[in-house]
Amino acid sequence: MILMKDIIREGHPTLRAKSKEVQFPLSEEDRKLSEDLLEYVINSQNDEMIEKYDLRPGVGIAAPQVNVPKRIFALHFDENSGENLSLIAINPKIVSHSVEKAYLSAGEGCLSVDRPIPGYVPRYARVTVKAFDIEGKEYKMRLKGLPAIAFQHELDHLNGIMFFDHINPKNPFAEIDNAIAIDRASGE
Ligand code: 4LI
Ligand code: NI
Fold first, then answer.
1. Of 10, 58, 153, 182, which sits most exposed with the smallest number of CB within 10 A?
2. Residue in 10, 39, 138, 154 annotated catalytic
């Protein structure tokens, strides 16, 4: 299982690398990695598991964060977050997006960043995405709210981009044109 000690932090070069496409059928290793990533986000939202293994909560984690530069990430939102979505995304892409933007009014956090970095992170408010699951089946879905934000945050990891790269350095809380603020962790 993935623990906090397995997660690389800001400054590690893998977080700035462009991750490689994954080939199908998935190797046993890639399958295990995919399942471990999803298991981490599920466990990280469970109070007993947090306490027992000293996990930091997250809704998303990407393979490069465990020092594997492959295009895989996992997202998990349970009912309490107002969403119900659990996915492994392999070779993911955004096929279309809204003109409207969105940002978390509380800012973004990242399992690979140990300090709070204040500021708005502009994202697309709605995205239509495509990815492959572990069986190699392609799926397509439309996301909004926190899932849309998290998908873009994790996709950025596969391209060596960190959330704070998007923060306005002059004024981290500068108004973002044509954007909606997401206040609750669930969005809307
Ligand atoms: C406990 C159990 C307040 C501060 C509000 C916690 C279950 C921040 C928000 C959670 C913030 C769960 C989250 C992300 C933010 C802040 C991620 C709590 C886990 C809220 C997820 C990837 C950015 C995603 C909304 C600096 C590790 N997650 N909060 N940002 N939650 N969580 N991100 N922002 N301010 N990061 O962090 O998984 S996109 Cl579900
Ligand atoms: Ni992150």
1. 10
2. 154
